């Protein structure tokens, strides 16, 4: 339980850092507004892929934590 909590905090922090880096790169290296939007919408960019991989990992960790904490059907019927 503690491990899942720590892992979720680390993944959320990593995603925040990747998001900030993505915005920083978009506003510093791409001058016109249309270039910024094109960069932020490009799914082939490594930061875009990294952000979504972290997000999917967060979902898997959270869901596996919930599934592991659910009681089994035999535990429910014994009450």
Walk me through the structure.
The protein is 84% helix and 0% strand. The protein has 79 residues and is mostly helical. Helix 1 (2-29) packs antiparallel against helix 2 and helix 1 (2-29) packs antiparallel against helix 3 (46-69). It is elongated. The model has no long low-confidence stretch (mean pLDDT 90).
- Please report which band the strand proportion falls in: under 5%, 5-15%, 15-25%, 25-35%, 35-45% or over 45%: under 5%
Q: What is the number of E strands? A: 0
The residue fraction in helices comes out at over 70%
The Cα radius of gyration reads: 19 Å
Q: Which structural class is indicated by helix and strand composition? A: mainly alpha
- Contiguous runs where pLDDT drops below 50 for at least 5 residues: none
Distance between the termini: 24 Å
Helix count from the secondary structure assignment: 4
Question: Which word captures the global form?
Answer: elongated
Mean pLDDT: 90
| Largest beta-sheet characterization | none
Please trace the helix and strand order, writing H or E for each element: HHHH
């Amino acid at each position: 339980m503690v491990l899942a909590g720590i892992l979720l905090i680390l993944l959320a922090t990593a995603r925040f850092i990747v998001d900030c880096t993505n915005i920083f790169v978009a506003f510093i290296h791409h001058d016109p507004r249309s270039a910024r939007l094109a960069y932020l919408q490009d799914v082939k960019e490594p930061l875009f892929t990294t952000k979504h991989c972290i997000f999917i990992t967060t979902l898997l960790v959270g869901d596996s934590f919930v599934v592991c904490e659910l009681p089994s059907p035999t535990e429910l019927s014994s009450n």
